User: Which sequence fits this backbone?
């Protein structure tokens, strides 16, 4: 069964029917937002049942749209948190990929600016590595990007998509060794992106991110995960009631190959490891439960089938 | 198109230069500095790295006097100021308190100030300068240039005077003989420092 990431937008009235349908079909609700009278569901739905979902949604005035980034957590790495880089373009890109279903986190480097003085500390490196992908937002000069990139990529193990002022071909030329994705023409700017040309550029960034993540999913598909992160999320939600008390918009963030659970590690790691997915199979059998460097959250990394010889 | 007589960004990297021209335009508009700058030349060399901005300001309005803030009416040992433009009310009150003392300055309502027992005629009072806009302009201009410059250029030198300004920033130590470069950039605008 191939699950397709989608977003459902509709009214509050009878939206529970849509939720039930997705769950009955074997899909998962990744995130649910109730905003006044509107409901936004981000979900994974079996590909063959998409039409059925659209049919059920139609009389409820609901809309089902594909959202390629649902179920991913993406780091938007800004060179600093000063006015030079915020709120544009960092927040514009973070917001745009969020609209496409990703959970985006803006990471402002303490000393990412400058050509000679740019650096990445261990905490920043570890936090970036906890994501599925990192978007590096550089400035407008190819010379500076070329000089600082080796420093800022040191120790990064997740795929990187580089964005900067020079065009894509120039970025591709100056970055050595190559990174997974490039998108040029979006460097430092000081105005809000609202023109159609600028929105097209943001669409381009989303397309590049989607391409890189699809490639990662294909790689994971060669050695599949022992359990789907979406299923693991439901297990955690059912067996750890404390997660329902968390006020964060996404108490459990689904990643391509894991979960971020927003509960304190010291208190809940033991309970999490002991959660039973199926008879005789516990979370600790199929995943690593690790302390996150983001606050005191818990990071769950699902092991591949080749390591566990289990598929639940 | 910006209403600046001369506005250029000079940079070896053409793309970077164009993008910085846009950034500079947006920042100057946001900070409402377009109306005060007559000429602006920005030079960026990312290889050094170095950011140089030189420019000329337009003729600025003179100091705001009491007559510009409101009407002055003197009668029987007291002077009444009826505020017309509230924008400068706070600096006017500070000026009057400093000059005559708080016990002689009354503000019965938002738009009225009454001075008691002040040894000054209405004509002299009207000519008192309240604020000088050029002082704030200098700070605004330097702040705007700091926003325009690439981030991380923490070493700075700047000058403003006689309607001309220059600003140099780098992430390295700025060389001592930077003045010839600044003069050259002024010459490109057809000006001399």
Assistant:
């Amino acid at each position: 069964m191939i699950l397709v990431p989608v977003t459902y937008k509709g009214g509050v009235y009878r939206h529970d029917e849509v939720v039930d349908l997705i769950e009955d079909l074997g899909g998962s609700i990744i995130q649910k937002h109730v905003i006044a009278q509107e409901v936004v569901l981000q979900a994974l739905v079996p590909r063959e049942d998409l039409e059925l979902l659209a049919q059920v949604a139609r009389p409820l005035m609901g809309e089902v749209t594909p959202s390629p980034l649902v179920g991913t957590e993406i780091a938007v790495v800004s060179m600093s948190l000063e006015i030079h880089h915020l709120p544009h373009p960092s927040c514009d890109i973070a917001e745009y990929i969020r609209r496409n279903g990703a959970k985006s986190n803006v990471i402002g480097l303490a000393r990412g600016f400058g050509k000679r003085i740019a650096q990445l500390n261990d905490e920043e490196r570890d936090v970036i590595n906890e994501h599925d992908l990192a978007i590096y937002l550089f400035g407008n000069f190819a010379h500076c990007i070329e000089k600082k990139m080796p420093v800022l990529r040191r120790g990064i193990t997740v795929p990187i998509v580089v964005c900067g002022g020079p065009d894509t071909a120039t970025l591709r030329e100056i970055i050595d060794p190559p990174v997974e994705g490039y998108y040029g023409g979006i460097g430092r700017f000081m105005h809000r992106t609202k023109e159609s040309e600028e929105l097209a550029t943001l669409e381009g960034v989303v397309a590049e991110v989607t391409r890189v993540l699809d490639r990662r999913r294909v790689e994971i598909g060669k050695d599949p995960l022992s359990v789907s992160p979406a299923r693991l999320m439901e297990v955690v939600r059912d067996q750890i009631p404390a997660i329902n008390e968390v006020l964060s918009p996404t108490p459990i963030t689904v990643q391509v190959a894991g979960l971020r659970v927003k509960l304190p590690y010291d208190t809940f790691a033991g309970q999490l490891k002991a959660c039973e997915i199926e008879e005789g199979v516990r979370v600790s059998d199929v995943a690593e439960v690790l302390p996150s460097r983001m606050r005191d959250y818990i990071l769950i990394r699902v092991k591949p089938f080749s390591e566990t010889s289990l598929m639940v | 198109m910006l209403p600046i007589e001369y506005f250029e960004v000079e940079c070896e990297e053409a793309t970077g230069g164009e993008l910085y021209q846009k950034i500079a335009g947006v920042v100057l508009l946001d900070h409402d500095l377009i109306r005060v700058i007559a000429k602006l030349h920005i030079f960026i060399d990312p290889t050094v790295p170095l950011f140089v901005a030189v420019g000329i300001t337009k003729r600025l309005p003179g100091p705001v006097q009491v007559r510009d803030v409101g009407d002055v009416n003197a009668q029987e040992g007291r002077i009444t100021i009826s505020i017309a433009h509230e924008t400068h009310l706070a600096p006017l009150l500070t000026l009057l308190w400093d000059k005559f003392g708080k016990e002689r300055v009354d503000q019965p309502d938002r738009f009225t100030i009454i001075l008691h027992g002040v040894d000054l005629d209405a004509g002299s009072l009207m000519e008192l300068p309240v604020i000088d806009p050029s002082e704030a302009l200098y700070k605004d201009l330097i702040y705007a240039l700091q926003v325009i410059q690439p981030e991380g250029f923490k070493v700075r030198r700047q000058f403003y005077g006689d309607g001309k300004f220059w600003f140099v920033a780098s992430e390295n130590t700025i060389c001592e003989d930077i003045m010839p470069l600044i003069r050259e950039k002024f010459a490109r605008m057809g000006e001399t420092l």
